Structure formats: C-alpha cells, structure tokens
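FAQ

Q: What does a record look like?
A: Structure on top, sequence underneath. For example:
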C-alpha cells in the first residue's frame, strides 16, 4: 500500500513539474509564498522538507504527524523594504492523525503616489498579502506519514483584490528512525491569482530532501548531536536549486537543549545572500528560535519564532 501511494504521489509531482516551466524569475503571482516562514528553517538555509511540528504546515504538511499533543506556533519576519511577515499555526492530534491551521500576513509600509509626470502626490497606497491554510497528516505505514493542505490566498493592491486556492501535499519516511529521514512535498499547486483580467500562476515548487543525525556524544546527560539537512527544489520561477543546513544541538539540562545552526541556499542573487545562521532553545513546553539571513543589496532579514507545546513530545521516528 505504501509503495502504491508513494508511486502515485511522485507521478502527480512529475506531471506538475512538466507544467512548472524552467526558471523564469518573477513569472508567478503571490510571490510572498516564497518567503521563508520559520526561524529554524531559515537558519538551516530553508532545508525544511523533513521538519516536524506545527511549523511544518508551511513546508511539508506530512511533518504535522510529529505533533503528539497540541502545538501553537508564531513567527515574525522582518523582511526587506520595511515589510513584515507574520505567521501563526496551530496543530492538534485527533485520533490517528493531526489537524493543522495556519495564517500568514505580509504587510508593506504606505507608498507615495506619483502622477504620470513623476510629480509626488499627497496620497499614498498600500499592498498586503494573506494566506489561510488547513492541513491534515496521517500515517501511511509504520515509518511513513502523508500530509495534505488547502490554502486560500488573498492579495490586495490599493482598491483591487485577487484570490486563489492552492494545495500542498507531502510524505515523510523515517528510513532509520531517529537517524535518517526523507521528505517530499509539492507546494502551491493550484489556479491563478487574477487582478482584474490578468492572471498569474502560483509559484509551484517540488521539494525533495533528507536529514541525517550524527551522535557526537551519546551520554544522555551531556548529549551532543550534529544533524545535516539537505533539500533539492524545482520551482516555477527559479528552476532547480538546493538548500543545505547544519544543526549542532547539545543538552543544557534535563529538559533543555541549545542549538546553533548555519545554512546556505543556491538560488540567492549572490553568494553572501545565500548564507544564513540561527540559534534555538528547546524546552519542555516551548521553543525560542532566531535566524539571520543577509539579502545582499536589499539588506538583512531577521526571523523570530516561538512554539508552545502541550502534551507528549515527538517520537523518535520523527
């Protein structure tokens, strides 16, 4: 059954890839969907196909299965040109699966208006983007999970607005539980975002990746782990690109771990803009995370994330 489901999923993904086109930057609408959400993912260079918990609804909904109780997630991104990107997510286990609900909102500062002669006017205009996502993750087999989500997208520019509906789907497979995990996701599969009479396809992305954990110190009281994350993407706008990240985690006390992260993505405009770094503190009932990523001439970006956890922690299979 698992093999059939995976083969069907990859067949659909291949068909979607044929429609995606090859690297035509800026051709898609709803470009805000390409902005990385979480501080952990950003610190890992956006290598996020195998992440677990409520945050995974933004990257691979199959990761929702890592929630064994309930999680509430908040992320704030200080984006370029004084824009702000706010994200909320909730996930709760119910029966044999996990339900997730998320909302994203990008706001930009007011912009001056000019007439056709280039004269500045006393008026300003604004723009904003929003997405609301409902997701579900369940078990395919003992070490495999699937996830699917529906996403309502709204974009507003001055007095004009556009909407679209999109879907994400993904699978996660723990080849070596607690050690080696693979993930695959298809993001933003849907219709067009249409302003007046002009419609733009969404930024369809196919993501395949994995993570591997190295135990540097197996003593439970002083445990130190190094985890390598990698993703390969194919996006409608930027074509094929890769992400890689490294997370070094050490035990601070019985219920607290501290993580240092670094990452790189190959689709940045220049080499320095692809770099990222971050840190995180994982406690029994909440996580605090931060990431820094330069954007070259556009400036620097900062992400802050906070996760509240209720109930049992994730299993070793995740």
């Amino acid at each position: 059954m698992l093999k059939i489901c995976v083969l069907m999923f990859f067949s659909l993904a291949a068909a979607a890839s044929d429609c995606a086109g090859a690297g035509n930057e800026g051709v898609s609408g709803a470009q805000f969907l390409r902005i990385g959400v979480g501080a952990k993912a950003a610190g890992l260079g956006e290598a996020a196909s195998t992440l677990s918990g409520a945050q995974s609804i933004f990257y691979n909904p199959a990761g929702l299965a890592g929630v064994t109780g309930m999680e509430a997630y908040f992320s704030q991104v200080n984006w370029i040109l004084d824009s702000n990107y706010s994200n909320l997510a909730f996930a709760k286990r119910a029966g044999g699966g996990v339900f997730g609900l998320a909302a994203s909102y990008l706001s930009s500062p007011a912009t001056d208006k000019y007439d056709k002669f280039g004269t500045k006017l006393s008026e300003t205009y604004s723009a904003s983007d929003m997405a609301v996502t409902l997701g579900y993750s369940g078990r395919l087999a003992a070490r495999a999970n699937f996830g699917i989500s529906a996403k309502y997208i709204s974009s507003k520019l001055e007095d004009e607005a556009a909407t679209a509906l999109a879907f994400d789907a993904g699978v996660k497979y723990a080849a070596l539980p607690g050690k080696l995990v693979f993930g695959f996701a298809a993001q933003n599969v849907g219709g067009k975002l249409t302003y007046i009479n002009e419609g733009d396809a969404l930024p369809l992305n196919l993501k395949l990746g994995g993570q591997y954990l190295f135990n540097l110190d197996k003593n439970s009281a002083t445990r130190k782990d190094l985890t390598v994350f990698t993703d390969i993407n194919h996006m409608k706008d930027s074509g094929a690109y890769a992400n890689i990240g490294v997370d070094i985690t050490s035990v601070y006390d019985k219920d607290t771990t501290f993580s240092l992260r670094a990452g790189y993505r190959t689709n940045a405009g220049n080499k320095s803009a692809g770099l990222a770094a971050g840190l995180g503190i994982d406690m029994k009932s909440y996580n605090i995370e931060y990431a820094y990523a330069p954007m070259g001439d556009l400036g620097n970006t900062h992400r802050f994330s906070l996760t509240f956890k209720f109930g049992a922690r994730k299993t070793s299979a995740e």
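Q: Is there anything notable about this one?
A: Helices lie at 2-20, 39-43.
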